[in-house]
TrEMBL record:
InterPro entries given in the database record: GPCR_2_extracell_dom_sf (IPR036445), GPCR_2_extracellular_dom (IPR001879)
Protein name (Swiss-Prot/TrEMBL): Calcitonin receptor
Keyword Cytoplasm listed: no
Gene Ontology molecular function terms on file: G protein-coupled receptor activity
Organism: Plakobranchus ocellatus
GO cellular component, one term: membrane
Length: 182
C-alpha cells in the first residue's frame, strides 16, 4: 500500500491527504478561535468537528458519524463546508496548504527511497510533510533549509521565512518578526 510520511507518522495516501488537510487547518487557522477542532486520536484521526458539537457531546465519547467532517480536496462539499467558516483569504491559504500536502505525498510516492551513504553509514532522515513544507530526504546531522511557503503568515518566496532541520527535527522557523526555536 502506498504510504506518505507526516511529522506525526505514516499514513496510507488517502488518509494522509485528509489528515494533512485537517492539520493545515489547525496550524493556519487554529489560533483564530476556529469553528472546527481537529481530532488527532483514533478512531477519529484526521476528522474535524464543529467545536460547539464537541462541547455539547462532552468530548469524543458521544460523537456520531454525522458530527464528523473529513476535509478532502476530492470532496467539494467538505471543502465548501470548511471554507464557509473562513474569510476568503484564510480559505485560500488553507486550500493551498492542502494542495501542497497532496503534492508532497505524490512526490514521496514517486521518488525512489534514499539510501545511507555506504562510506560513513550515516542515517537518512526520511522525506516528510512537516505541516507546512515538504522536507526532502536529508542525511542525519545535515541541515535542510526551506523557504516558508506563502500561505504561512510572514512567509513568502522572497526568503522572509526559513525552516531549518537537523537530526530529523525542525530547529527554527525564522521570519521578519523573529526566530522561533522548537
Amino acid at each position: 500500500m502506498d504510504t506518505c510520511r507526516d511529522r506525526f507518522g505514516v499514513f496510507n495516501s488517502t488518509m494522509f491527504n485528509v489528515y494533512a488537510c485537517a492539520m493545515c487547518y489547525s496550524y493556519l487557522i487554529g489560533f483564530k478561535q476556529p469553528r472546527y477542532v481537529v481530532m488527532r486520536e483514533e478512531p477519529y484521526q484526521g476528522a474535524m468537528i464543529d467545536a460547539s458539537h464537541l462541547h455539547q457531546r462532552n468530548g469524543s465519547a458521544g460523537l456520531s458519524p454525522e458530527d464528523l467532517l473529513y476535509p478532502d480536496l476530492r470532496d467539494q462539499a467538505s471543502t465548501d463546508q470548511v471554507c464557509a467558516s473562513l474569510e476568503n483569504r484564510d480559505c485560500g491559504r488553507w486550500l493551498t496548504c492542502c494542495r501542497a500536502a497532496r503534492t508532497c505525498c505524490q512526490t514521496q510516492l514517486s521518488t525512489p527511497p534514499a539510501t545511507p551513504a555506504h562510506r560513513n553509514h550515516s542515517l537518512v532522515c526520511p522525506r516528510t510533510w512537516d505541516g507546512f513544507s515538504c522536507v526532502p530526504d536529508t542525511p542525519a546531522g545535515n541541515i535542510a533549509m526551506l523557504q516558508c511557503p506563502s500561505y504561512i503568515d510572514g512567509g513568502s518566496s522572497s526568503g522572509l521565512c526559513l525552516l531549518r532541520y537537523n537530526n530529523c527535527n525542525v530547529l527554527k522557523h525564522k521570519n521578519k518578526t523573529g526566530t522561533k526555536s522548537y
